[in-house]
Write a structure and sequence with these properties.
There is one protein chain. This protein has 287 residues and is an alpha/beta fold. It is 39% helix and 18% strand.
């Protein structure tokens, strides 16, 4: 059976991800206590289900500790288990809860004898939840949704679902340093030292996927030297990541605005590796 576990920080988009999987033909269960996971798998097998997606989070904190061993047992039994951990920056989460006027799930948890007036603040809830899920985050692929629209998150989840049969998927992602480094990056490369097409008025409105920008960067020796260094680094260490049983490796390339140089680099790297690896490309700052 193919099993996808959706978990992560409240407000980071787990419901959006689960709906994508439901549309892809998965039988989906939301807010399942982890201690019930193996029972659900057994029942689903009996009923002939081949695709199962489960969402769980800190609301089931009391049974989270056993989740890593349950996942390993399911893998040992021959199931294809993938874990997607969704997260976002604290300020982004606060903004989302404020916009929706929803309360954080942990705000309703009271310790014995605690006065209801002393409930945790939203920020305290988010920080507590991060601590509770720190071991779970290490189980799979982390997706930073801080700057993602719902549509873009749906697209990213679809890409990951399409590539999950590969032993390891290479994700190349461009980003702008001025908006922060992606939380889900495994390797980060800074290309801000390269000449910037932004200062050419004809190239400014274009992106690193447009031919005039590509031609501009193609002819610069320093650009090709850095591109070769990044390509060689990834090539050298990719077998080690595969040997570590990684399902995903996210290589993030950043420049100032995330429009020209980093986009160009990601496109070139993706083109190079796509003949030998399963590749997904992301451009965080592009619409």
């Amino acid at each position: 059976m193919r099993i996808i576990l959706i978990t992560g920080i409240s407000g980071s988009g787990k419901s959006v991800a689960l709906r994508v999987l439901e549309d892809a033909g998965y039988f989906c269960t939301d807010n399942l206590p982890p201690k019930l996971l193996r029972g659900l798998v057994a029942t689903s097998l009996h009923e002939g289900t081949e695709l199962l997606a489960v969402a769980t989070d800190a609301r089931s904190a009391d049974s989270l500790a056993g989740l890593p061993s349950d996942i390993q047992q399911l893998k040992d039994e021959g199931h294809d288990v993938k874990v997607f951990f969704l997260t976002a920056k604290t300020e982004a989460l606060i903004a989302r809860f404020s916009e929706t006027r929803r309360s954080h799930p942990l705000s309703h948890r009271l310790r014995p004898g605690q006065n209801p007036a002393d409930r945790l603040t939203l920020t305290e809830c988010i920080l507590n939840e991060r601590e509770m899920l720190v071991e779970i985050e290490r189980l799979g692929n982390t997706i930073d949704t801080s700057d993602l629209s719902a549509n873009k998150l749906r697209s990213w989840i679809s890409d990951l679902v399409d590539t999950q049969q590969a032993p390891l998927t290479l994700l190349f992602e461009s980003f702008a340093f001025k908006h922060g480094v992606p939380l889900d990056a495994d390797l980060v490369f800074d290309v801000r030292m390269l000449p910037n097409p932004h200062y050419d008025l004809k190239l400014r409105p274009l992106t690193g996927r447009d031919q005039p920008v590509i031609a501009f960067l193609d002819r610069l020796p320093e650009v090709q030297d850095l591109l070769g260094d990044i390509r060689n680094f990834v090539t050298k260490w990719l077998p080690a990541f595969k040997a570590d049983n990684r399902s995903y490796l996210t290589v993030a390339v950043g420049c100032t605005g995330g429009q020209h140089r980093s986009v160009y680099m990601v496109e070139q790297l993706a083109h190079h590796f796509q003949n030998s690896e399963r590749v997904v490309r992301r451009h965080r700052e592009l619409g």
